[in-house]
Design a protein that fits this description.
Layout: E1 2-6, H1 16-21, E2 31-33, E3 39-43, H2 46-61, H3 69-83, H4 85-93
Antiparallel strand pairs: 1-3, 2-3
Helix pairs in contact: 2-3, 2-4
Amino acid sequence: MLRIAIPSTGQSELTFNSFEKFSVPSPPNGVDAEINNEVVLLFDDEQQAVEYAESLFEVGSDLDNDKTPQKLIVNDIVGAIYNNNFVRSYRDDH
């Protein structure tokens, strides 16, 4: 299982509550909340994480304004996934 934490220090200041409030699509294995209310995305493996990031990127491209909370959340999530060391290594190999 791959767990990717989304820091609440990003542009969206994402918390578990805002993840739910803005109805961000969840990854296939769901999400967890850490004690500090940060969001942790759950995946079977790196490929599943990349596929989720790509689908979120498409959702984000459909949003008109780059400053909406939804767009900022999507950007923070996609960035956290692609910056994850395991995902980067997987992408380098494929």
